[in-house]
Amino acid sequence: MSEFEGSKVYYYSNIDNSPICGRGEPLRLLLNDAGIKFEYIRLTFSEWPSIKQKLIEDGCRIPTLPYLVTKSGKIYGATAPLLRLISKKLNKYIPKNAEDEYLADAYSDIYLDWMNKWVNVFISKDPKATNDYETTYRDNQQTNWENILSDKGGPYIFGGEISYTDLLLYHQLNNDNGAKVDASKYPRLTEFVKTIQNRPSLKEHFENEKKEKSEI
Ligand SMILES: N[C@@H](CCC(=O)N[C@@H](CS)C(=O)NCC(=O)O)C(=O)O
């Protein structure tokens, strides 16, 4: 049994009236896809500072959300490195050769740049920054990911095998605009979104997402 079975995953309460908004979701996608049971604990913005302080006092060096606590009490933070670690330990969701492992890592970096940009624009509420994001930045990102998906023929980044980087990409597409992609401009991204959404291992995940949305 995986050491991550029965973990607790902590993230903020719904942001922007969405159950998936922010950085907590990639972990949920990976754990759900892998069939690993966990508890998802949402913290309010006002609860977080004292919890962060306690984490620091307890020796946690990555005191940000999301973080994961295993049943044995081990604490892990930082989304992409944690997805990578879980994938390595499961020996799944990670390419088997060093070159592709590097690409998975580098593409995760691009995900992080995109997420950081999105967060900055979202927080700023600046009309010019929002307009630049919506008219240029998003298109540039989607074009690059379209090219990435074409390199190995799809439907996933590394061809027929899913990787943790696919889950980061799916999440950012969903986080950004509900995974709406222009099929005429981005056929591979469109196929990618459908492929993720149709994974039998994620059926319950997406049903739960719908349910959470309807309850807000
Ligand atoms: N690189 C980290 C960034 C984590 C991060 O900045 N999380 C935000 C929430 S989305 C946070 O914890 N903010 C509050 C804080 O830094 O104390 C990751 O991808 O997990």
TrEMBL record:
It holds the Pfam family GST_C_3. PROSITE patterns: GLUTAREDOXIN_2, GST_CTER, GST_NTER. SUPFAM superfamilies: GST C-terminal domain-like, Thioredoxin-like. Residues 97-214 form the GST C-terminal domain. One of its GO terms (molecular function) is glutathione transferase activity. Residues 11-94 form the GST N-terminal domain. GO terms for biological process: glutathione metabolic process. This is Glutathione S-transferase. It comes from Mucor plumbeus.
